[in-house]
Write a structure and sequence with these properties.
This is Cupin type-2 domain-containing protein. It holds the Pfam family Cupin_2. This protein has 140 residues and is mainly beta. Helices cover 9% and strands 39% of the residues. The termini are far apart.
Length: 140
């Protein structure tokens, strides 16, 4: 099955989100950017992670479609007191201003999608690898 991985934000879109997420092989693919919400698909390689981060004023929802991970959250980057293993079909809710990271602890890519309320990446952002995301001057 072939999917359109372009950012189709502010247009109506219907996709099978599970198949869409599993088909994505990029570290991050931004597929929909609206005025108050954004959706990205992620494929995190074994041993890699989404990167310790905090979104000021932005709540985040993550859904694991495939793989095994370790979710960590806390009120400071050196105080991640909430730690839970996650796997297929788990949902993660990250409150605004909460430090968080999800690490791939499995032996295959961790496939997930995430919703930001409001958008966190520039429309159309694609990072084939985690390093590309780190090197992107538009990312904070």
């Amino acid at each position: 099955m072939s999917f359109d991985f372009t950012d189709r934000g502010q247009k109506p879109v219907v996709e099978n989100v599970e198949e869409w997420t599993l088909a994505n092989d990029n570290y991050r693919t931004t597929v929909w950017t609206g005025k108050k919400m954004q959706m990205t698909l992620m494929s995190i390689q074994p041993g890699d992670d989404i990167g310790l981060e905090v979104h000021h004023g932005i709540d985040q929802f993550l859904r694991i479609e495939e793989g095994k991970g370790l979710c960590k959250m806390g009120d400071a980057e050196d105080n991640l007191t909430f730690v839970k293993k996650v796997s297929d079909d788990d949902a993660i809710f990250v409150p605004a201003d909460m430090w968080h990271n999800v690490e791939n602890i499995g032996d295959k890519p961790l496939k997930l999608y995430t919703l930001y309320a409001g958008p966190d990446h520039l429309p159309g952002t694609i990072h084939p690898t985690h390093q590309d995301a780190i090197d992107d001057p538009n990312e904070d």
